[in-house]
Amino acid sequence: MIKVADIETSEERRRPGRPIRVAVIGAGMAGILAAIKLRERNIACQVYEKRDSVGGTWRENTYPGLACDVAAHWYTYAFARNPDWNSLMAKGEDIRDYFERVARDFGVGPLIRFNDEVVNLTYENGGWDLRTASGHADWFDFVIAATGVLHHPNIPDFPGIKNFKGAAFHSVRWDHDVELDGKRIGVIGTGSTAAQLTSALVAKSERFHLFQRTAQWVLSRENVPYTEEEKAKFREDPAALEELVEQLRDKTINGFANAVIQVGSPEYKEIEKLCHENLATVRDPDLRRRLTPDYRVACKRLVISPDFYEAIQHPNAVLVTSPIKNVEPDGVRTADGVLHELDVLVLATGFLVDRFIRPTKVIGRDGVDLDDVWADGPQAYLSMSVPNFPNFFFLNGPNSPVGNFSLVEVAQHQIEYILQLIEGIRQGDYTEVSATEEAMREFEKERCEAAKKTVWVTGCNSWYLDKQGVPASWTFTFDRFVEETKAPRMQDFEKKTLSSSATEAAVI
Ligand code: NAP
């Protein structure tokens, strides 16, 4: 394996076949993937991880009931399938174990610098000057930002929350020292996290309050367990396992992913019907009415749960729909004047979804600041490249497919694409590469146009919408995503090569 070398001269950097050094930011699902793929190609790589272990979102989230509602077998790397998933959708801890195991099996650990947050990236001399919080500095030819999407918690400033006598925390900062059995628990929010919390906590609580600002559509999907016989078969017959992955993938892509970008399609109508049927299982008409959303199915990310409606009908459960007024030492007071007394208050209030690599300061060519470029919201050509930020690419970046896709598959397509561009540098075809302004503009224009047909713009507030009300997602078919990420259209990229003066660049 190539060792991270000393910074080279610019002369050396123009030599075809020379060693390339890549920094990967983040050791979650996408960062582990990038490290494995770079190493496979003998490309030196240094991973930076601000915490002390791998796993990203699956390390950060530890809340009761945590699971992934994407089929587990599809939510795995193609080169490291896992015949041992226990059920159709995996528990969070099993997913974290899987990523830790893959990182171990593929020897990623030694490539990671743990507990060191990258705070500054500055493009200079045809590469990136990288600085970390500990004062460490290095220089890389290329940077891959694998920093995730749902990472920075959204913590609304509920008046009085600091005076609450019980325990209060965001779902991603779960306090495992807090006793839950027989306690009065309040959860704010009705997204996928809150639904999983509801199913996990209602029965063990003395009283469970779900504070709902907006009702959600819920699709019921039974979490069928895999038998020991099935697991043995998958272990012995990788082809059978691959067939299963294909089936699960096709079902989601054809039945769901393509449905939401074409409202009115038969696939969309089917999902609509299933959600209405699920809602109809709520027995009390008043509760059903309060749980009925006033927007179209899948406008917000669908909650997928086999038992949320059962849980919210449990005798311990209270659905609170009066808006939250403030938090008091003893609980949450709502606009109707009622004080809901609580011992534990959980903010399942989601994430700041427009951060990506930020707050890391990223300064591109000629001093351009990513914060300024993204003042109106994050954008990247094909979700991966930002004009004037050469040799700087995202995995699961802005407007990448999100929602009910396998983000593992998404990242796999993206890394293969990025590796092709890195290869151009290694071969000496160019020393720097980034999307052209024109390619970015055209892509964004087409993406916004396609957005008009999606269900996400049919009249709801959701984290899918940016400040302009445009879905911050891939608005085309998933097949198109796969097609577009097969190989870079080189005319969409600005490629430069360093002159021997090291600071001048010539467009080629
Ligand atoms: P979310 O979907 O953004 O939901 C946040 C909830 O908090 C919403 O119900 C929101 O209400 C409510 N909220 C926010 N601020 C509030 C305020 N000031 N007052 C009252 N209510 C407030 O967040 P999430 O549930 O954590 O899920 C985020 C994403 O994580 C999901 O969409 C999904 O992509 C992913 N996730 C996936 C899984 C999985 O199984 N794969 C599980 C959990 C999470 P409004 O609706 O009114 O805004």
Which hetero ligands occur in this complex? NADP nicotinamide-adenine-dinucleotide phosphate
Poorly predicted parts? 1-7, 500-508
Rg of Cα set: 24 Å
Q: How do the strands of the widest beta sheet line up side by side?
A: 3-2-1-7-21
Envelope shape: globular
CATH H-level homologous superfamily name of the largest domain: FAD/NAD(P)-binding domain
Largest sheet: 5 strands, parallel
Question: Percent helix among the residues?
Answer: 25-40%
Number of helices: 14
CATH architecture of the largest domain: 3-Layer(bba) Sandwich
CATH topology of the largest domain: FAD/NAD(P)-binding domain
- Which class of the largest domain in CATH terms? Alpha Beta
Amount of beta strand: 15-25%
How many β strands by DSSP?
24
How many domains comprise the coordinates?
2
| Structural class estimated from helices and strands | alpha/beta
> For the residues shown, what is the average pLDDT?
93
N-end to C-end Cα span: 32 Å
Keywords, separated by commas or semicolons:
508 residues; alpha/beta; FAD/NAD(P)-binding domain; 2 domains; five-stranded parallel beta sheet; 14 helices; 24 strands; 29% helix; globular; disordered C terminus; binds NADP nicotinamide-adenine-dinucleotide phosphate
Concise summary:
This protein is an alpha/beta fold.
Describe this structure in words.
With 508 residues, this protein is of the alpha/beta class. It has 2 domains: 241 residues, FAD/NAD(P)-binding domain, CATH 3.50.50; 181 residues, 3-Layer(bba) Sandwich (FAD/NAD(P)-binding domain). 29% of the residues lie in helices and 19% in strands. The chain has 14 helices and 24 strands. Helix 2 links the parallel strand 1 and strand 2. It is globular. The relative contact order is 0.15. Bound molecules: NADP nicotinamide-adenine-dinucleotide phosphate. NADP nicotinamide-adenine-dinucleotide phosphate binds next to helix 5.
